[in-house]
Amino acid sequence: MSGIIGKYCAQLGAGAVLLALLAPVAIAGPAEDNADAEKEFARGNLVVAIALWKKAAALGYAPSQVWLGEILDKSEDDEEAVAWYRKAVAQGDAAGEFGLGLMYAKGEGVKKDFVQALALVRRSAEKNHLPAIASLRDIYKFGRFGVAIDLAESEIWDAKAKELSPKPSPAKDKAAAKQERK
User: Fold this and answer.
1) How far apart are CA 135 and CA 176, in angstroms?
2) Angstrom distance (rounded) from CA 37 to CA 45
3) Does the first or last residue of the chain, that is N or C, have fewer Cβ atoms within 10 Å of its Cβ?
C-alpha cells in the first residue's frame, strides 16, 4: 500500500484503520437515531422505528420520548405513554407538554384532571407549539376541558395559529391559480 492510508495501516494495522473509518457510522447520536426512526416509520417499519426511538429516548432525547408517548397512547399502553411524556416535559419540551396535557384531559394513564390538562396545553402553546395553540383555540371556542366558552380568548389563539401557520409560497399560489383556470 502506498500513501497516507498505507502508512497508517502499517503503523496501526488494517483492523484499527477499518474501525476508525467505520466508527462515525456505527455511533449515531440520538438526533440521528430519531431522524432514522422517522424515516423507518414513514416506510411502515414500525419495529425498527420503535427500537431507534427507544434508543434515543433512553439517552434523554425529548423528541424521541414524545414519539414513543404518541405511539404508546395510540396502542393504549397509556401508563408507559405518560411516563415518556413526563420525561420530555421534564426537559421543557412543548410537544411533550401538549401530549401529557391531552392524556390528563382524556384521563388515560393518569386521573382525568382538566386543570392540569389546560395548564400543560397552555404552557405548550406559549412555546408556539401549533397543535397546542389550535387546541386552545377550540377549547375556548367550544368550552372544552371544563372551560366556559370565551370567544375573545378563542380569537386570540386563532390569530396566533394563523400567524404561525406555514404560508403557501408564491410559486404554489401561481400553480393553484393556473389549475383553477383549466
Assistant:
1) 29
2) 9
3) C
CB 101 within 8 A of CB 132: yes
Pick from 106, 101, 71: nearest CA to 86: 101
* C-beta separation of 120 from 104 below 8 A: yes
Question: Identity (one letter) of the amino acid at 101?
Answer: G
In degrees and rounded to multiples of 5, residue 91 shows phi and psi of -95, 5
Each residue's pLDDT tens digit, 17-68:
433 433 443 467 999 999 999 999 999 999 999 999 999 999 999 999 999 9
pTM score: 0.77
Residue 87 makes CB contacts below 8 A (sequence gap 6+) with 57, 60, 62, 65, 96
Residue 106 · residue 120 · CB < 8 Å: no
Please state, in angstroms and rounded to a whole number, the distance separating the CA atoms of residues 102 and 125.
13
Residue at 160: amino acid letter: K
Cα 9 from Cα 91, distance rounded (Å): 45
**What span, in angstroms and rounded, lies between the C-alpha atoms of 43 and 142?**
37
